[in-house]
Amino acid sequence: MPLSPVKVKVKGTASPDDPDLHDYWQHRQQRHGKRYWSRGSTYYRLAQSQQWRCPVCGEGLVNGEEVHAHHRSPVQAGGLSQDENLQLLHQACHRQVHGQAKTPVGSQRA
């Protein structure tokens, strides 16, 4: 019979920024994410394929921020709304990606 992982509660003052608790918070976010979207839904499949992380900032997808489905190849350019062309990003990361796309090559952002 396999042993179940030991569940350890952290103190109320524990911070997600504490490097010693990184694994705990990562596991907690992933576990919460698995209940956040319906199993088999597009968002669930995308989150799972991204290992429940935002590819822009590297943080867990389910951290209280709004999550957007981003088309890697824009719909206006013929991109489809299929899993291969979608990725989940935090709202702020999504704005950042679109802001970078509109910045002319060689120009500097303020």
How much helical structure, as a percent, in the residues?
25-40%
H/E topology pattern: HHEEH
Secondary structure: number of strands: 2
Strand content: 5-15%
For the sheet with most strands, the description reads: 2 strands, antiparallel
Annotation field: number of helices: 3
Whole-number mean pLDDT? 78
Specify the oligomeric state.
single chain
What is the end-to-end distance? 59 Å
| Widest sheet, order of strands | 1-2
Radius of gyration equals 17 Å
Q: Which stretches are low in confidence, meaning pLDDT under 50 for 5 or more residues running?
A: none
Q: Your description of this structure?
A:
By secondary structure, the protein is an alpha+beta fold. The protein has 3 helices and 2 strands. The protein has helices at residues 22-36, 42-49, 91-102, and strands spanning 67-71, 86-90. The mean pLDDT is 78.
Q: Secondary-structure blueprint of this entry?
A:
Layout (H helix, E strand, L loop, with lengths): L21 H15 L5 H8 L17 E5 L14 E5 H12 L8
Antiparallel strand pairs: 1-2
